[in-house]
Amino acid sequence: MPAKEIVFALVTALHDIFTAAWIGGLLTLVLSVLPAARKTLGMETTQRLMDAIQKRLSVVIYVSMVGLAVTGLLLSNRAPGFEGLFHFGAPYATLLSLKHLVMLLMVGLALFRSLGLARLRLPAPRKQKLSLALLVGNLALGVLILVFTGLLAAAGTLPAP
To answer: What average pLDDT score do residues 20-35 get?
Structure first.
């Protein structure tokens, strides 16, 4: 196997790992950990647990953000329909640009939730509700990115009309 193909395979694998870590972490947190903790531990202890989890998970998310940006750029440059960042000239380029815009929004929400939310002067219950809304919103954006990825994969494998 040529070196170029091996590098492409490794970059793709890393991109998939970063995606699984970030979006998989969100899915696990929202669908499993948070409901189980609320049911078992109560609100106050659940909040302390979520704070501890967020502290540890933030490192994974920050690494994933950087890793996805780097590997995503490398993968985009190899895609035949790539026309540059934020180009909307062709269907493939438009889908890719939309995916990048959603990714930027996801990064912004994640950074605000982990770094900015604590600085807001809100009562604790409101802050907790906002934190949950941001968490669920980020998960929804992550799922949307996966939908765009599926559409891009389909668009990249279909013959041109």
So the answer is: 92
pTM exceeds cut of 0.90: no
Q: What is d(CA 132, CA 29) in angstroms, rounded to the nearest whole number?
A: 10
Secondary-structure percent of the chain, ordered helix, strand, coil, rounded to 5: 85, 0, 15
- Number of structural domains (the chain) is 1
User: Nearest Cα to 47, choosing from 33, 28, 59?
Assistant: 33
What is the C-alpha separation between 71 and 11, in angstroms, rounded?
6
Q: For residues 89 and 49, which has the higher predicted lDDT (pLDDT)? A: 49
Question: Where in the sequence is the domain holding 16, given as residue range(s)?
Answer: 3-157
Burial class (CB in 10 A: 0-12, 13-18, 19+), 106: buried
Please, what sign has the CA dihedral across residues 70, 73, 78, 79?
positive
Q: Which candidate, 114, 91, 98, places its Cα nearest to that of 29?
A: 114
